[in-house]
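ESCALATION

Customer reports they have been waiting on this structure for their group meeting. Please prioritize. Original submission:
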Amino acid sequence: MIVVAGEALIDLVPRGAAPLVDLRPARGGGPYNTAVALGRLGSPTAFCSRVSYDAYGEALLDGLRDAGVDVTPVQRGPEPTTLAVASIGEGGSARYSFYVEGSADRLFEAPARLPEGTRAVSFGTCSLVLEPGASAYEELLHTTAAQGVFTALDPNIRPGLIPDADAYRARFTSWLPSVSLLKLSEEDAEWLGGAPRQWLGSGPSAVVITHGGDGLTVHTRAGAEHSVPGEKTDVVDTIGAGDTVNAALLHGLSARDTLCAAALAALGADDWTRLLRFAARAAAITCSRAGAEPPYAAEVGEDF
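Update from on-call: job pushed to the front of the queue and completed.
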C-alpha cells in the first residue's frame, strides 16, 4: 500500500484564453492527483486527508474511488472545499490563485495509525504550507520515517501561499532527514535556492528534478546523475504533470520492490533510465489532456 497524504481541492480551469471566460471545475490538488495517478497505474493506494461534506468533497471522493483508491483514512468536515483558480499561459503552463480560508483540508489531524501494509507515504504541495494542517502532515512525515517507512516529498511550491519564504525554506530543510525520495521541478529548485548535492547530504537517497518538456534528471547519493528527454506530445496544459511523475516513480519503485533506502541506492543507470522514461511517458499523456487526467496502466505500458 502506498499512502498519499495531502490536500484535495477543486481546480477552476478556464475554457479559453480571454480574461473573462467560463471556468470548468476539475478535481485537483497535488497529492490528490498523485493518488489518482497511482490508482490508475494499478498500485494499491490510500488517500490520507480531510475532505469537505459539500458537493465538491463528494465529487473528490468519487474520483478517488473510481481510480481504485482506498478512502478509509480520509477525515471529513463541514467546512468548504479549497478552490484553486487556474490561468493557462504559453506552452500550457498553469498559475493559480487560491481560496483557502476556513477550508476543510486545513484542519487535518495526524492519524494514530496508517493502513495495514503501508510501504510508502507521499507528501507535498499546499498541505505542507497551510496551518494548522501543515504541522500535522509534518508530524506524520517524521513519525513514518522514524518507523522505517519509505517517504516521498514533492514540495510543488506555490509562492502565493507562502507568506515567509525564508521560514518555509528553513522548514523544507528540516524535512529532508525524514525524506527517502525528493522530487521537484527545476522552478521549485530555483525558488528554494538549493542544489541536489546539498539536499542529498541531508537525507534523501535520490533527488529527481523535472525540466518540463526537456525531461527528467535523477541525482543519487552515490554521486550518479542520469537524465532522459521529455516525450513529445501536443500539450493542452501541464496541470497534474508533475503529480503524474511523482506517481509513476512510486509505482515503478514499488513494482521493482525498491521502496527502501538501500534498494533505491542500489539502482543502476539502466534501472533509473527505464524508470525516468516511464515517468516522462506518463506525464506526456497527462499534458495531452485538459486538467489533471493521468493515464491508466494500459495507456502508458509497464516498461520500467
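Sent to customer with the following note: The radius of gyration is 18 Å.
Escalation resolved.
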